[in-house]
Specification:
With 309 residues, this protein is an alpha/beta fold. It folds into two domains: 177 residues, NAD(P)-binding Rossmann-like Domain (Rossmann fold, 3-Layer(aba) Sandwich), CATH 3.40.50.720; 118 residues, N-(1-d-carboxylethyl)-l-norvaline Dehydrogenase, domain 2, CATH 1.10.1040. Helix content is 51%, strand content 12%. It is built from 13 helices and eight strands. It has an eight-stranded mixed β-sheet with strand order 3-2-1-4-5-6-7-8, with helices on both faces. Strand 1, helix 1 and strand 2 form a beta-alpha-beta unit. The two termini are 26 Å apart.
């Protein structure tokens, strides 16, 4: 069995740890200090409580999950005997490079160094390490304990043996992995997500529809079916001749903008950052935030239960 260490106690770090412990595998979380550790303990407890309330685990499992998760503020002790280390630190390239360089001096040369970065390329992250062949990306999606997808990103030097080991580990924690064979910026999922966001911003700024109606259009149409059929299978079902014709007369009219739109630039400049600042495209109160998050979590739990059938 692989021995797992997670670097980072934030939302992604402690959610990944919860997934590992839920699969009956011990895991260590490294945090910079006790305050970070306490935040992780609280986050894990809150998420596990929701799982308990939704009958996804019982009280015994709830207790066992918490017993399988260990915490450390000592990077050496947290990583020296790990066989897979998943880094979930802030999205800062130099920070990740220095972190991997340091970790490599503590662990075995066969220990897998995986980054949970959502956009930074593993080849760049591995630039300072001696053994780049064991560096790769493992991009979990938020919330990591409920979303099944993990993108495995191969660097220019990643060896197949480490790809296969990570795939096997992810299967044990009930994740569905895809292999990103070419290191494109944003990998697969985020490129698709931001292509949709770009067109949504374009439609909003050109006055085609209100932001509420644009979101509703996604929620009540493609959002409903994408959980069963992805865009390429949807095209097959609709007929490639039909989708070719639509592509030919719509692509030239769609946005090809290469940077963020004015509507988001202006809001960021005004510190209207969305839910965390109380205003973004929408106005956010504590009650609104709680309701939306609970609704989204309930939907993810519904899908999670369906996946277990």
């Amino acid at each position: 069995m692989e021995k797992i260490t997670i670097i980072g106690t934030g939302t992604m770090g402690h959610s990944i740890a919860l997934s590992v412990a839920w699969a009956e595998i011990p895991v260590t979380i490294y945090g910079l200090n006790n305050d970070e550790i306490n935040l992780a303990i609280t986050g894990i407890g809150d998420k596990a409580t929701v799982l308990l309330e939704n009958q996804l685990l019982d009280k015994v499992t709830f207790q066992m999950i918490q017993q399988r998760i260990h915490f450390s503020t000592d990077l050496f002790s947290a990583t020296s005997d790990a066989t897979i280390i998943i880094e979930a630190a802030p999205e800062n390239l130099s920070l990740k490079q220095d972190l991997f360089q340091e970790i490599e001096t503590y662990c075995s040369k066969d220990t897998i160094l995986a980054s949970n970065s959502s956009s930074l390329q593993p080849t760049r992250i591995a630039q300072k390490v001696i053994h780049p062949e064991r560096v790769l990306g493992t991009h979990f999606w938020n919330p990591a304990h409920l979303i099944p997808l993990v993108e495995i990103i191969r660097s220019e030097k990643t060896s197949d043996i480490y790809i296969e080991r990570v795939k096997a580990f992810l299967e044990k924690i009930q994740k569905q992995s895809i292999i990103v064979e070419k290191e494109v910026v944003g990998f697969v999922g985020n490129r698709l997500q931001f292509a949709l966001l770009r067109e949504a911003q374009h439609l909003y700024e050109t006055g085609v529809a209100t932001l509420e109606d644009i979101d509703t259009a996604v929620e009540l149409s493609i959002g409903r079916r994408l959980g069963v059929t992805g865009p390429l299978m949807t095209a097959d079902l609709g007929g490639l001749d039909v989708f070719k014709a639509i592509s030919d007369y719509t692509f030239s009219d769609m946005s090809n903008r290469s940077s963020a739109f004015d509507s988001i630039n202006e809001r960021v400049q005004e510190n209207k950052l969305g839910e965390k600042s109380g205003q973004g495209y929408y106005d956010w109160t504590l009650e609104t935030s709680r309701e939306i998050k609970e609704e989204r979590e309930a939907e993810l739990i519904r899908w999670f239960k369906k996946d277990q059938e």
